[in-house]
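Exercise 3.2. Students should predict the tertiary structure of the chain below and write it as structure tokens, then compare their answer with the key that follows.

Predict this chain's 3D structure.
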Amino acid sequence: MWLAAKGMAARGHEVLVACRLGGRLAARLQEARLAVREIPFRGDFWPPAIFALRRVAREFRPDVVQLHDPHAVSAGLLAGRSAKPRIATRRVDFPPKSGKYRRCERVIAVSRAIATVLAESGVSPERTRVVYEGVPDRPGQSGGREVFTALGIPPGAPVVGNVAALTDHKDHQTLLEAAALARPRVPEARFLILGEGELRASLESRARELGLADRVVFAGFRTDLDRLIPAFTVFCLSSHHEGLGTSLLDAMNFARPSVATNAGGIPEAVEDGVTGRLVRAQAPQQLADALCEVLLDPERAAAMGAAGRRRFEERFSVGRMLDGTLDVYAELL
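Answer key:
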């Protein structure tokens, strides 16, 4: 959401972001020279946080309050009764656990798949608007093959890259199974997994069990994705739940072909056979076959990457995200 705040401010709107005290978001916002109010937070209904949000609303007197995650929706609804309209943003395709989204004047879904889940959960379609997530445009960025060397990846080896938190719904287990199945056909390929999470130890153990210790690199959280992603041979997203997938949009931005599952909003970004390949979720053999297909046909992979870049420009730029969000604001003001 810091990109949205930065973009709104650049367009001349007065923006104030209230966020968790001492978090990474606050640091990013401060680096961007945006107005930030840090609030201590110990739960959705923690009274000091709610009272602090009320003070912020009284002092800033916003025309619109946008609530960017489920915790913000809970606290913001309690704190901001006098601050309307309230717009919630929903980025995941899990059904909401409560009816709080039904109390917002609008709900922005970052994909049509999420809008469908919201409707099935009782949120009126008349209140829901689809505004695709956007990522910064970085055309012409060159890859960092030398960084791969530092990670133990041999020069010239094709690299299947994945950028995702190591959590259950990202389903790295299926990615590892697919890597084992693909190895006989593309023995030189390496699988680079970027991200941290609760499942790292178990995933590393599973990679060893599958005989992939020398083929899969767990590189953890990285701040140099703009050098790594452009150097991927193919980007892979193996999620069995996914609202849209900003790392997938980054790969499209850098004209990388994608192999991904058909979970959630992913098919709204990846067109099978055009910008990449889509397979059924939790289907390791299908994933392996699609990865081999792209890795063994460089000419087709390049065409898919170029098509993905065009789709990014048409649908997933930050500018288009800002335009769509401001259109939702305008409906209510």
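Discussion points: The first strand starts at residue 16 and ends at 20. The mean pLDDT is 92.
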